[in-house]
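Entries read chain and fold; for instance:
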Amino acid sequence: MSDAASSNSADAFAGSEFGDTLNPRTGLEPELGGFLRDAPERSGLEPELGGAFRQKGVYVDEITCIGCKHCAHVARNTFYIEPDYGRSRVVRQDGDSEELLQEAIDTCPVDCIHWVDYTELKHLEEERVYQVMPIPGFPVDSAVVATNRRRQKLKARKRQS
């Protein structure tokens, strides 16, 4: 079947009274990459698509993290201690079991590890790029954060042009 014919039949089906119940996509699902993008059927077991796997991801608030390394010792395949600032970071969402991740969250003395929805996780990771890591003993001023964010955005614009 050609692409034009399949898209016309899909449009006609989507307009029918059954289109909403059989196509539960919300438009908020993340794009699948590579060969998965062109797959005619998805199994529905992908965590990003609301399958049987974990519905939430793990996020570390690096500003709050004190670098105790408890999480990295408990869930070694998920957490990583970032060498520049000595704080924890999530490197693999599917690295360890949910029970092990919950144990790592429970062992954190400052509660800097959180379960977040996958849709929020992308936004939090984008914001993390602009974080200002404080020097121990000095408070972080909001003006410092704003200045750093502005400088990084200017650098990004210069790279693009």
